[in-house]
Amino acid sequence: MSTKEIKLPKWFNGEVYKDGATVQNRFSGEEYKLNNIELSMYDFIIGSTMVLEMAGGYKHADVSLLRKGLDWFRQHNAEAYMVLLD
After folding, report:
1. Whole-prediction pTM value?
2. How far lies 25's CA from each of 6, 31, 73, in Å?
3. Where residue 53 falls among pLDDT bands split at 50, 70, 90?
4. Is the dihedral of CA 29, 30, 31, 36 positive or negative?
5. Alpha carbon distance 76, 4 (integer Å)
6. Tell me: the pLDDT tens digits for 60-78?
7. With 0-12 CB in 10 A as exposed, 13-18 as middle and 19+ as buried, what is 9?
8. What is the DSSP string of 55-78?
9. Which residues contact 18 (CB under 8 A, 6 or more apart)?
């Protein structure tokens, strides 16, 4: 799927990168190359996760945007999702 075919959802309020990059799973060390749109969503997901963890856990915070981000990523690149986020 080309970058032009993938669009970020309207609710997305993160930075949209110009270029993609190879990302490493912080636990397993596995790597996956993401295009600019996927990388933008990936960083949004990781950033949201860090904010929620600092807020005292998921019980005390609204996780709806994080869940939407994970769902978007799973739908648009299931293979990368399994390597990086599952």
Report:
1. 0.86
2. 22, 6, 15
3. confident
4. negative
5. 13
6. 557 889 999 999 999 999 9
7. exposed
8. TTSGGGS--HHHHHHHHHHHHH-H
9. 36
Q: Tell me which residue of 78, 15, 10, 79 sits closest to 41, measured CA to CA.
A: 15
- 21-59 per-residue burial string, b: 16 or more CB within 10 A, e: under 16: eebeeeeeeeebebbebbbbbbbbbbebbeebeeeeeee
pLDDT digit string (tens) for 22-38? 999 989 999 999 999 99
In DSSP notation, the chain reads --GGG----TT--S---SS-EEEE-TTT--EEEE-HHHHHHHHHHHHHHHHHHHTTSGGGS--HHHHHHHHHHHHH-HHHHHHHT-
Asked if residue 52 lies in contact with residue 21, where contact means CB atoms within 8 angstroms, the answer is no
